[in-house]
């Protein structure tokens, strides 16, 4: 046959560039959770600022990821990919030098913009540069390395935090970026998509403003109260902007989100399932890591390993679940998987204050295992259901929308639940300190600083017995806050299973 195909050496170099560049985003997305207590300690940040540091990256990434794909199609996928790498890396370096929470929040947001330019480019370049008969293998290889780097993030973050070197999480992006840029510049040809496509600037602006305003409103509620004008105005602006986003997209000739896709019952159902499930998967692990380090006394390097069984099971079971879904359809896996995920979250909520990492195998390990099995059953069938619920010429757009939905759910879920968790921790702390006989002045000081969660400092001058009572009050208050948060995650997972019952169709006989 004489069919023209990309040279095999080009395919190899494209895969190298895609894997190396994507690994930066995946590592930074997971490693920072484990370093959160070190960030709190070294930069003197409270829980609201910590949530902003985690969320600002995901906020800009989720709002702009679809725009990043359009920019690559119009101006060149390699060019936009390289610009994203440069922007991401420069912002990473500035994150590494950050000496204030506000500066770190801004740089994390810029990292997210770079990630929005990088993430669509990696798979788009693979699809454009790899011959069709080898494309599945190439994307599978990319997915394997993406999973491995995601796995290594918490382990690496915990190890660096234990050495007092959390800033290296950001600095290590520099050599990775140099490798990726060199490969792209000298080994990878440029490719384009639909160059007649127009950018959906109004959609991008409204989506970003809406998500940012809602996030701001949710997070400020923990400091200002839900009736505060700042909170109400922020939430109102967010709701109005997102409503305008839907209005504009429905009337645009080049929408960022073609809402016509939601006429498919299955596409709507898979995205509703994604909203509930991925919101839970963002906030519960975040609080799990804080619980291990701040309440249970795990060293950061051990806390980084605690979630590893989940990731290993997810990797092993995804391929098996994909084959099962091909045989029986997506409905059954998407009911069983999220339902088991909810059981896993519920099991994580059962332990109280433990004796530390020595108890891991009988306290948190069973929940992690069930959680890993549940998500291992879910991920591949969900991806397949999303892709097959849209017309074949819109499968890429459908996948991009679902990706953005998952990230957006994570942003808003962490912001809302994080804010409620701060309020709950403060109320529990006041009660437990009073029961422990802590003097009113010290009690008031500690409750006023409840935003520090388990990193809360006990005022000096208390006698040893009262200090010990205050320490126990902090631990139990945070453990019970974590339990409530994790039960909420379980409920969301079970709701997502309900979405599969309602919306996902059984496989039709042929």
Order of helices and strands: HHHHHHHHHHHHHHHHHH
Which CATH-level-2 architecture of the largest domain? Up-down Bundle
Number of E strands? 0
Give the C-level CATH assignment of the largest domain.
Mainly Alpha
Strand content: under 5%
Radius of gyration: 23 Å
Helix fraction?
A: over 70%
Q: Give the number of domains.
A: 3
Structural class: mainly alpha
Which sheet architecture does the biggest sheet show? none
Q: What would the principal axes of the Cα set say about the shape?
A: globular
Query: Quaternary arrangement of the chains shown?
Result: single chain
Mean pLDDT: 87
Classify the fold: give the CATH topology of the largest domain: Growth Hormone, Chain: A
Report on the architecture of this protein:
With 510 residues, this protein is mainly alpha-helical. Helices cover 80% and strands 0% of the residues. The chain has 18 helices and no strands. Helix 3 (77-96) packs antiparallel against helix 7 and helix 8 (201-224) packs antiparallel against helix 9 (229-251). The longest helix is centred in the last third of the chain and has 41 residues, at 395-435. It is globular, with a radius of gyration of 23 Å.
